[in-house]
Amino acid sequence: MRASDLKTYAKNTWCPGCGNFAIELAARQAFVELMEEGKLKIENLVVLSGIGCHAKMSDYLRANSFYSLHGRVVAPATGVKLANPELTVVGFAGDGDAYGEGLEHLVFAAKRNVGISMIIHDNGVYGLTTGQFTPTSPPGFQGKSTPRGSPEDPMNPIALMLSSGATFVARAFSGNLQHLKGMIREAITHRGFSIVDVLQPCVTFRNTWDFFSKRVYDLQERGHDASNWNEAMERAREWDYGGGAGEIPIGIFYRAERPTFEDRVLRGRRPRELPMPELEKVLKGHV
Amino acid sequence: MEEFSILIGGQAGDGIKQAGNAIARVFNRLGYWIFVYEDYPSLIRGGHNFAMVRASSERIASHRDGIDALVALNQEAVDRHSWRLGEDSVVIFDSDTAKAEGLGIPMSGIVKRRGLPAILRNAIALGALAAVLGIGLDVVEDAIRAAVDKRVEENLEAAREGYGIANGSPWAAEGRRVERVPGGPRPLLTGNEALALGLARGGMKIYAAYPMTPTSALLHYIAAHEDELGAIAIHPESEIAVIGIAQGAAYAGIRSAVGTSGGGFSLMVEHISLAGQAEIPTVIVLGQRLDPATGAPTYTKQGNLFFAMFAGHGEFPRAVLAPGDANEAFHLAAEAMNLAWRFQIPVIILSDKHLSESTFSFHFDISRAATEPPKLWDGAGEYRRYAQTEDGISPLAFPGGGAVVKANSYEHDEFGITTEDADLIAKAQDKRLRKAKALEEYVNGKEMVSVEGDPEGKIALLFWGSTKGAAAEVAERIGARAIQPLCLMPLPKRELEERLEGAERVVGIEGNSRGQFCGWLRCHGIQVDGVVLKYDGRPFAADELEERVRRSLR
């Protein structure tokens, strides 16, 4: 199978130069590589997306998909995984989607270590609603809802996910396709909850291409110890999602092993194979 | 007709609920039909709690305001409930904490002497009650063994002491005696428990809920009985997560259900619309309570009918079912699972505090309910999740089975790809409208209207949900017909009109302030001549409702 075999007939409507193209291509390439290596079955892949420019992934990928509501990728993804833990569940969400409207679900998915991968298309702006500030926009960002500049400081999703108990936390940049593909692969093959915050430009409303290109560096190339949570947190705080100078680390911040939510809830049971209820027995206890 | 009504009252933490359950089990063992109403404020310690146990040789499903015995664990119980007493009624009270006319037993002193927690005063009271009513100690001991799971021996000892004291008193020698009646014992189920069993019978494998009165006990029950029910209970971070998880599971082919009350249901509303658009089978138990907002959380109301029927943006089919007792809760919960999967729609089961938390004698033939298979893809050709069909129902396939299954909250083509094409949009809506039509026909082809009382009566009492117990009894007593649609949306109009034919006067009875169901009937051209409404958080008692119905007929 080739990466192009994973495309549907849906017409692509992203703006030319959009970071989403790289994420979509990297995802398809990652899927195909994992299939070829026997680590993924295409029929077992379920992708979910929220609402926003990123979410067209559901239309563009020729795979099982659940095109959900804005902010509501994580909960259905959790349901899919619980229902059938053999499925490979990959959620795509925007920064508004994952860190704004549906933030609580993300925190709890990390806390539970549910076996899903979240790929966040983080462009620091609402694209589909034509340019407002998001939870990761820098202070002072002039969006349509904040013409005098955003009055808030951005949140740091890497630090947040580390604090929430995520067992795989990474960052990538849509301008570095090979690295991005590698992060998606690592996220999918990780056992438990994984998240990749993908920095990407929105060419129409917030073009950060140059900003990121000049600043990103690969954590792994500099020998970061991803098994050390404190060190991960230190690296996470190296960049506060603001617009200042300095370097921006990408790569795997943290990776650990912990029992997954589905392991702990299902205890080896499979919902499909649960027995029919023994009602007569239950009713006897009620006399 | 032999019947007894007993009220046990005390404060929160006194174990009133368990005591009511034990009294119910005693009468159940003697062949009686049982109904237990629980009344408690929203707090953990203090306040006033009471349980009313009604036992009858005839089938009943309601309580009465009047009582034959009052068991008072404190003065407040005496003061609040003495108006319920008749001439022959008896009062059994803790003489260490209350003053009253009747059989006083120093219950607090006894538990203190025995070094037992105060909650065991219940067992003393139960023993005394049995002696006064002429019930054998063996029946009490058997009921305690079934009802109590901690300190069984201490409970038995305390009950024996209460029995001994009462047996030696004049109260045991006179007054009414409880005789064994034919029939029984029957399983005693709360509405919540019956819902749990029905959902499981309908194939539910995952139940998700965030705690909220009055359906918290549904979550607790499923969690405690996972193995017997063949289901898994989970408690996620919010009602939004609850329904999202349930829908993810349903998309993956696993039958799921959720439970909540009005506040949690409000949070789920966007996902109800998603169920409509993406055609995801979604079963929601909505246990109504007194609202708006936080209202009076542990009190009952039938105020969410319109909310259940119209929650969610957009035009899409749904079903709203309204069981009135434990039998119907079981039956309709299984039906809800089947409807949701047959038509790939949201189905709402309307319960309320009164149905969910009251206890009933269960006598439904459980073999009448089963998990019915949905319409499945036959594997031929390329799978289209939203394939156009005559009845609007597209065959289901699930991830992992080889088909590419695309669920979509946007308007979509047959494959599930987003579309904004005018023609495709209209076609997709037409498909859902055909499905609505098929649903309507299906509901009209099933028996979805319950009739009790005299089916030919000139007066028809028309009601829905938990009002059933009291209303059906009143109909029986005044020779009226009791008519209760089990499915409120779509309305089984044909059947309902048949049942109403020949009635000269139709009285609507509802536990809300605006007669929502009567309004819904008017939308269907069905007129109601008068309404009896109650909206003080308390359910209708049978005797109270009879009086109000008689007044409305004058």
> Tell me about the biggest sheet of chain A?
8 strands, mixed
Count of helix runs of chain B: 20
Order of helices and strands of chain A: HEHEHEHHEEEHEHEHEHEHH
Low-confidence regions of chain A: none
Overview of the structural elements:
The complex is a heterodimer of chains A (287) and B (554). Chain A has 287 residues and is α/β, with parallel strands linked by helices. Chain A has a single domain (3-284), classed as Rossmann fold (3-Layer(aba) Sandwich), CATH 3.40.50. Chain A contains eleven helices and ten strands. Chain A has helices at 19-36, 57-60, 74-83, 95-101, 103-112, 157-164, 177-189, 209-215, 229-236, 261-266, 279-284; strands at residues 45-49, 64-67, 88-94, 116-122, 125-126, 132-133, 168-173, 194-199, 216-218, 248-255. Chain A has an eight-stranded mixed sheet, sandwiched between helices. In chain A, strands 5-6 form a two-stranded antiparallel sheet. The longest helix of chain A is centred in the N-terminal third of the chain and has 18 residues, at 19-36. Chain A is globular, with a radius of gyration of 20 Å. Chain A starts with 18 loop residues before the first helix and ends with a helix. The model of chain A has no long low-confidence stretch (mean pLDDT 97). Chain B is of the alpha/beta class. Chain B has four domains: 3-173, Pyruvate-ferredoxin Oxidoreductase, domain 3, CATH 3.40.920; 188-368, 3-Layer(aba) Sandwich (Rossmann fold), CATH 3.40.50.970; 375-444, no CATH class; 450-553, Rossmann fold (3-Layer(aba) Sandwich), CATH 3.40.50.920. Chain B is built from 20 helices and 21 strands. In chain B, the strands form three sheets. Chain B has an eight-stranded mixed sheet, sandwiched between helices. In chain B, strand 10 (256-260), helix 12 (262-278) and strand 11 (282-288) form a beta-alpha-beta unit. The longest helix of chain B is centred in the C-terminal third of the chain and has 23 residues, at 422-444.
